[in-house]
Amino acid sequence: MPPATLASHPHRRSFVCSACGAEAGRWQGRCDGCGEWNTVAEAAPRARGGARVPSALAFATPQPLDVVAAEAGAPRLACGLGEVDRVLGGGIVPGSLVLLGGDPGIGKSTLALDLARRCGAAGAPTLYAAGEESAAQLALRARRTGCAGPEVAVLAETDLDAVLAAIEHHRPALTVVDSVQTLHDAGVAGSPGSVAQVREAVARLLLTAKATGTAVLLIGHVTKEGAIAGPRTLEHMVDVVLYLEGERHGDHRLLRGVKNRFGATDELGILVLDEAGMREAPMPGRAFLDTATLGVPGNVLTVTCEGSRPLAVEVQALVVPTNFGLPRRTASGFDLGRLHVLLAVLEKRGGVPLGQADVYLNVVGGVRLGEPAADLAVVLAVASAARDRPAPEGMVALGEVGLGGEVRRVRRLDARLAEAAALGLDGAVLAATQRGATPGIRARWAATVPEALTVLR
């Protein structure tokens, strides 16, 4: 009998994988769904009894979509931080569930407390359910960041029933749960943070949010792999998934929208974390630019598109002779496998010998370049470092590099060049297939990698 059939019987034991949520009829060391080891644990026992009684929802009358759209005119809840509202698509939708994840110490709780203060009022405070801090500890952080006011009401509680009762009684515009892994439901087996506890907590919070119209902001822990802890179904249950990224020892933080049912995904907001809390970056376009390092060999600028925002970033490369038989390749902010491909193309098609050299690549500011439009900048940065020749000042490189050494076109070229011109950059290396007018930019067209390398002369 298949595992799904076994799990459907209320009198049988069910086992669930904490990594992917797959169910099995018995315990096993390795999950058949995702292949992870030691992730299968017994799920909470199902209720025993006879046949289920159909609920009132089973007899609900469907409504035409145009009628529903006319009635659903509730305005969004503006956060007061333009960068956060940009990622959310204009603000928080009432009754929605927003999941905020990030590494420990990156500033999730600081950002959530600041949003709670901005969304609350003296007569209608937001609710902050603190499961990891006491009320006194939260007050100390609130005084330091300027959030100690009547706009936020704190509830130091980990009992799920108590948090839900507070939401239903006060019906605040926004409720912050810090964190969802600390909530505990006495009716569900398992300790706080287990698969069964987290899944039940999110499911009940979702029902309460839809019924009361209260927006709920959940703070989630992140595993060592960089994913939000808990079952993978957690991200499918919520409406919005946000990740707070950046270097812990730096000031800038990147708020990235991974999922958004009410707006565009892959949007990026740039924030600054200091002693006074979280605030918007004054000039987001120049957040990751340092004019003092642009003339150094190995440093090349590119413009990446994160959502609807073009962002100029600096790619740094360092090439040194290897001391061992096997050269070392290290990449920060760029896919290492993609770097290996570009190095092979650069050596084969561009004639740059790298077989006896260590190559180090870094994307400044903690930005991660995931689109192929940054390929040409990486190739030029590595060639510039290998030949010890700096790239021309004020130049950006935009293009995808193929295995044959060809330079391919990129999307949204006009928006990228407009951002480069707004930052005072006046040169660009572009794919020859996108030849055309580039107002304010001195363009150099390259059909192949060898033609692009001529800018280093």
Write a structural description.
The protein is of the alpha/beta class and 457 residues long. The protein contains 12 helices and 21 strands. The protein has helices spanning 3-8, 65-71, 82-88, 108-119, 135-145, 160-170, 195-212, 233-237, 336-348, 375-387, 413-422, 449-453, and strands at residues 15-17, 23-24, 40-42, 97-102, 126-130, 152-155, 174-178, 215-220, 240-245, 252-260, 268-274, 277-280, 299-306, 309-321, 329-332, 357-363, 395-397, 400-401, 407-408, 427-431, 442-446. Strands 6-5-7-8-4-9-10-11-12 form a 9-stranded mixed beta sheet, with helices on both faces. Strands 13-14-16-15 form a 4-stranded mixed beta sheet. The chain has a 3-stranded antiparallel beta sheet with strand order 2-1-3. Strand 7 (174-178), helix 7 and strand 8 (215-220) form a beta-alpha-beta unit. The chain is globular and about 70 Å long. The relative contact order is 0.09. Residues 1-10 and 47-57 have low confidence and may be disordered.
Radius of gyration: 26 Å
pLDDT averaged over residues: 87
Give a count of the beta strands, DSSP E runs of length 2 or more: 21
Structural class: alpha/beta
Which range does the strand content fall in? 15-25%
Please describe the biggest sheet, giving its number of strands, its sense, and whether it closes into a barrel: 9 strands, mixed
Count up the helices: 12
Distance between the termini: 70 Å
Helix percentage range: 25-40%
Low-confidence stretches: 1-10, 47-57
Shape assignment? globular
